[in-house]
Amino acid sequence: MNLRKLIFTNNACYKAGRKIKPKGIMVHSTGANNPNLRRYVGPDDGLLGKNQYNNHWNQDRPDGRQVCVHAFIGKLKDGSIATYQTLPWDHRGWHAGGDANNTHIGFEICEDNHTDATYFNKVYKEAVELCVHLCKLYNLTEKDIIGHYEGHQKGIASNHSDPRNWFPKHGKSMDAFRADVKATLCCKNDSKKTPASPPSSSPTKLYRIQVGAYAVKANADAMLKKVKAAGFTDAFIKTE
User: Fold this and answer.
1) Would residue 209 count as lying in a domain?
2) Would you tell me which of 74, 84, 100, 145 could form a disulfide with 96, CB atoms 3.0–4.6 Å apart?
3) Are 27 and 109 in contact (CB under 8 A)?
4) CATH code of residue 156
5) How far apart are CA 233 and CA 230, in angstroms?
6) Where's the SPOR domain (predicted)?
């Protein structure tokens, strides 16, 4: 994941300063044919590119719309894919149009004309990785992830169809998305498990060698001296 940060400090949502305890994640897609992050994220940080209309969301909305999400996923000016965090994750966003604003982190995936499978697969993968990151950060699971349309079905979001209007055109669904998040979470967790300790190189059995038995201790001492001189420093005398 190519995660960057440009907090919308000039958006009225950020200025409102309300906090939440994230209990879920809501996936949105923009509903407009513009995959470029600069349409929504600004001002230009050198990677985004210039928005000639200056209609990004990091400002008070002239039409009075109260809208803000926690992140956007889309294209940088060089065509590569990135995620831009635009609100602190525990900041109350204005993305759901309902009670989900009080409980869910919301992010937008920038839509294109829905025909570019390469672009879709890249932003889809980026979205999966963002959700994995947030699940680990807030102790969530794939079951805590919903699309905007599912939020409406649950009565906690406004009546929008995203991302169901886009995902199926490339063979994906929110169920598939959750499954991919789960698989990635499991894979990352498995890779962090402590590897088993290698078997000890020490033998389980010890074999002792006796070089003689002497009735006179002086003779035993003399032999012990010869054995140690030969390099067998562990040699000892045992009385029976």
Assistant:
1) no
2) 100
3) yes
4) 3.40.80.10
5) 8
6) 201-240
Q: Give residue 33's domain range.
A: 3-191
DSSP 8-state symbol, 169:
G
Local structure of residue 144 (DSSP, 8 states): G
Q: What is the pLDDT of residues 66-121, one digit of tens each?
A: 899 999 999 999 999 999 999 999 999 999 999 999 999 999 999 999 999 999 99
- The residue behind tokens 């990091």 is 58
Chain centre distance of CA 101? 22
Domain membership of residue 196 (yes or no) is: no
205 occurs within a structural domain: no
Token pair 């889309």 is at which residue? 74
pTM confidence score: 0.79
The predicted model gives 137-163 an average pLDDT of 98
How many domains are contained in the chain? 1
For the sheet with 145-147, list strands across it: 3-5, 81-85, 71-75, 104-109, 24-29, 145-147
Q: Is there a domain that residue 72 lies in?
A: yes
